[in-house]
Amino acid sequence: MSDTGDAYRQEGRGAVRGTVRGSAPVPLSVLDLVTVGAGSTARASLRTSVDIARLAESRGYHRHWVAEHHSMPGVASSSPAVILAHLAAHTSRIRLGSGGVMLPNHAPLAVAEQFGTLEALAPGRIDLGLGRAPGTDGRTAMALRGPGRLDEAAEEFPRQLAELTRFLDDDFPDGHPYARVHAVPGPVQGPAGRPPLWLLGSSGFSARLAGELGLPFAYAHHFSAAGTLPALDLYRQSFRPSAVLDAPYALIGVAALAADTAEEARAQVLTGALSMLRLRSGRPGLVPTPEEAAAYPFSPLEREFVDGWIANIVHGTPGEVRAGLDALAERTGADELMLTANAHSGEARLRSYGLVADAYGMPAQAPVQG
Description:
The protein is an alpha/beta fold. The protein is 46% helix and 13% strand. It has 14 helices and 9 strands. The chain has helices spanning 3-16, 42-59, 80-89, 108-121, 138-145, 150-155, 157-169, 204-213, 228-238, 262-280, 290-295, 300-311, 318-332, 346-359, and strands at 28-32, 63-66, 95-102, 126-131, 197-201, 217-219, 250-258, 314-316, 336-340. It has an 8-stranded parallel beta barrel with strand order 1-2-3-4-5-6-7-9, surrounded by 8 helices. Helix 8 (204-213) links the parallel strand 5 and strand 6.
């Protein structure tokens, strides 16, 4: 093990745990899907992501993560590393990271180089969250990974994770084929930090692996709520102390949207629910407007899906969202809540994060200029 890698892991304990602001029950963070609404553009959505990151930083949200998705017209986050570099240029304090990079879609060396570059651009502020799902449909995953690699790629996730870790620490043993291959920027250039590794998941696989490796774990409660408690229990039961963590640390992604009125919040979350319905039906598109969603002729089965989807979204007035988040934190015992506000308009998403911060009395700081 390299001295640099060992030093990093000793520092990792402080890099993972967040700080509670205001009266929030746990640290609050942001998960950004860079959604694109009908009538808007990816360019506008990316500008909104900068606005959200700057607001989150100024109001004490702990981190801002960007998810990796592909071939989805309503989502513009296909290249997290590129977006994170842009966000780093417009912020100065908030942690930035991937929620996550879908590791089987990439060569571990490429990921190590990308996030080594990000760490050099924003030292001490980068998180590397990793998932093993494709972040898209099977056909698109085939285009990303190559024919015949879908099942193989998922099965190889632990090997890829170990390889990525060695590239980040530059500590392949002598005799290994990659012993003289270096991720640059990285430790081969001299002492440097590197991003904490997180494992992401919506099932028990990553929960168990994260626990066994002593890594922090992020669970996708926002689209797989039924499995939240079993996955968190498995993570905690499987946890083995490591140089990174001496105790489990789990965050959950939470779909949450606050608005000035409950009716407005309902109208906004319906747009995201209809967008998800279309995606699950093989008809992905831009996020519809509230007017289109309100007028959509839902069949009984579609209505059942949409109602079930919305039931998992904490939404309403700021007070109602606060109560819902408090209850969720207590019920799950999550160490951090990562909020994703999915709606048609960037303005609604931006306002939601501000209203939640207001509801918890999270102190305002002057945003960085840039």
